[in-house]
Amino acid sequence: MSAQAQMRALLDQLMGTARDGDETRQRVKFTDDRVCKSHLLDCCPHDILAGTRMDLGECTKIHDLALRADYEIASKEKDPFFELDAMDHLESFIAECDRRTELAKKRLAETQEEISAEVAAKAEKVHELNEDIGKLLAKAEQLGAEGNVDESQKILMEVEKVRAKKKEAEEEYRNSMPASSFQQQKLRVCEVCSAYLGLHDNDRRLADHFGGKLHLGFIQIREKLDQLRKTVAEKQEKRNLDRMRRREEKERDEHVGRRSGSRNTDRRRSRSRERRRRRSRSTSREKRKSRSKSRERERHRRHRSRSGSHSRGHRRGSRDRSTKHKSTRDQSSREKSREREKKEKSSSERRHESTNGKSRSKRSEEREAGEI
Known about the structure:
The protein is mainly α. 79% of the residues lie in helices and 2% in strands. It has a two-stranded antiparallel ribbon with strand order 1-2. The longest helix is centred in the last third of the chain and has 159 residues. The chain is rod-shaped, with a radius of gyration of 69 Å. The termini are far apart. Belongs to the Luc7 family. It comes from Eublepharis macularius. It holds the Pfam family LUC7. InterPro entries: Luc7-rel. This is RNA-binding protein Luc7-like 1 isoform X1.
């Protein structure tokens, strides 16, 4: 890869697909099904095992460092939970690797001579010591490359101790079986990368194997798978707890709503009861009022009937008294009129007599004057 391509990849990894406004790159989002989720989490076996004898070639899905940058930026705000997809991918790959390991073991068991359990245990011990030596040497080389010389020297001292143990184990294994059989190469399948290991491999070959890209790549894949399993379990547990908490809150809200609804219904019932009571009270009051009114009417009627009979009797008595009084009054008025008539008569008679006397006296005087 040229320096310009490396710079472009670095910018993509840092800034994402929107770094230069290229709309064609922005059309594919990191959430697309065509994008490799293992690549976004930096654990795709196609990238890790590239350049080894188990190179898987290019991945069938999209690999883009800019999309990984977009995923890392977006995951800070909302977790898309791509760990589950990556875990499924790695589990299928590791299951295939373990299947190949079991097939290799069966093939070795068929081709190699059968040995007793005691000899097999001694050979297994030699293999384990070989693995320890190879791992320590690979670690010492890595520390030396990083510049940590002191730690590298300490690990080399440990390697010498393990080599001494390996010599003792090889002596025990050689003494437990005939020389012809001991000289035969005993192979063993690596449990990590399913590669073949020899019982009599030298330290250089062991260091190359255990420090090689293939073995370290499988270790990285297996460690990443374990990490993804823990992460998925934690997130699923958290989501289950959140789901249970939301369910409890919903049930609590529904319970509170039912309680409030029951309270409202109780209030409505109490209000309706109160209304019915008020209506019954008002109806009873009206009934009592109507009864009292009817009683008052009845009393009034009785009183009127009584007062009517009394008034009729009183009227009759008053009429009798008035007739009597009227008769007496008429008699007195008659008598008075009679007396008045008598007086008027007598006074008229007197006036008439006086007028007659005057007239008579005038006539006599006239007569006397005539005679004179």
